[in-house]
C-alpha cells in the first residue's frame, strides 16, 4: 500500500499542477507494489500513467507558447518552437533506430530512474552541412513536446577572461532548472582541441569548464545536443562525455527519392525519370536537394501548372550543384 507521505505528495503535486512530480511519485508507488510482488497492480498503474500522458499531449486545443529566456540568458539562448517531427526528416534506418532509442529512454525516464538508471541525454551529431543535424534536433524536441533552445555562440564566446566559462555555467544551470532540448550548433567553436596550435589559454579553460559541466547530473534530464561539421577538430576528451555519437551523411539513392517526393507535395509529379534525377542529385545534401525541389515547385506554381516535370527538377538540381561547386572552388582559392 502507498505510504501517507506519498499520498500527500500526490495531492500536493495535483493541486499545484505539477504533472512531472505527480507522475514521478505515481511511478514510485508502482515500483513499491512491484517489490511487494503485486506485479499486475504495478503494471496497471504504469499503463494508466502512460495513458494520461498520451491523452494530455493530444488534448491541448490551444498551443501554449514556451517561455522565452530572459535576463542574463536573453542573449545566450534562442527559443525555437519545434515545427518538425522525425517523420519530417529523411534519415538512414540505423540512425532512425538510434534516435528512437534515445526518445524511448527520455519518454520512460521516470521508469528508468526507478531502477537506478538515467536516460541518454548528451548527444553529438556529426556530418556534413545540410545533412539534417539541426532539423533532427528540432524534430527531437518536437517528439518530446519540449522547447528547443539554441545556444547563440556570438553571445557565448567573448574575449574577456572567465566570461565565456561563466556564461556556460548559466546555460547549464538553466538545463537543470528548465527541461528542454539545448542545441550547441557549430560546436567545434567551443570544443576544439586543447592542444591545437591556434588555441589560447582562455579557450582551454572554456573547454575544461564544458567537460566538467557535461558530467553533472540533473533531475530534469534535459537533452544536450552538440552538432558539428568537423568532428576531427573536437578534443578527444569530449567523446566519453556523450551518451551517443550519431553520424549524419548525404542522402542515398532511396533517400533522394524520398526527399524529392516529400518536398513536391502537394504538387503532382507524373512519371519522373528517377535515374536521371538521382544521378544529378548525388552528392547534394538533404538541405540543398530540398531547396532545389522547392524552387521547382515555386516555378510551376508561378507558371500556373499543376505538375512538376523531370526537366524542372533537373534544372534546379543543376543550379544547386553549380552553387556548391562555386562555393568549394572559392574556398580553395
Précis, in short:
With 333 residues, the chain is α/β, with parallel strands linked by helices. 54% of the residues lie in helices and 8% in strands.
How would you sum up this structure, described in words?
- With 333 residues, this protein is of the alpha/beta class.
- It has 14 helices and 6 strands.
- It is 54% helix and 8% strand.
- A 6-stranded mixed β-sheet has the order 1-3-4-5-2-6.
- Helix 1 packs antiparallel against helix 2 (19-35), helix 2 runs antiparallel to helix 3 (39-59) and helix 13 (286-302) crosses helix 14.
- The chain starts with a helix and ends with a helix.
- Residues 57-64 have low confidence and may be disordered.
Q: Give the helices and strands as they follow along the chain.
A: HHHEHHEHEHHEHHEEHHHH
What is the CATH level 1 assignment of the largest domain?
Alpha Beta
- The CATH architecture of the largest domain would be 3-Layer(aba) Sandwich
Question: In which range does the helix fraction lie?
Answer: 40-55%
Mind sketching the topology for me?
Elements lengths: L3 H13 L2 H17 L3 H21 L17 E4 L12 H15 L1 H6 L7 E5 L6 H12 L3 E4 L1 H4 L6 H15 L3 E4 L3 H4 L9 H14 L8 E6 L15 E4 L5 H12 L9 H8 L4 H17 L7 H23 L1
Parallel strand pairs: 2-5, 2-6, 3-4, 4-5
Antiparallel strand pairs: 1-3
Helix pairs in contact: 1-2, 2-3, 8-10, 11-13, 12-14, 13-14
Features:
333 residues, alpha/beta, Rossmann fold, 3 domains, 6-stranded mixed sheet
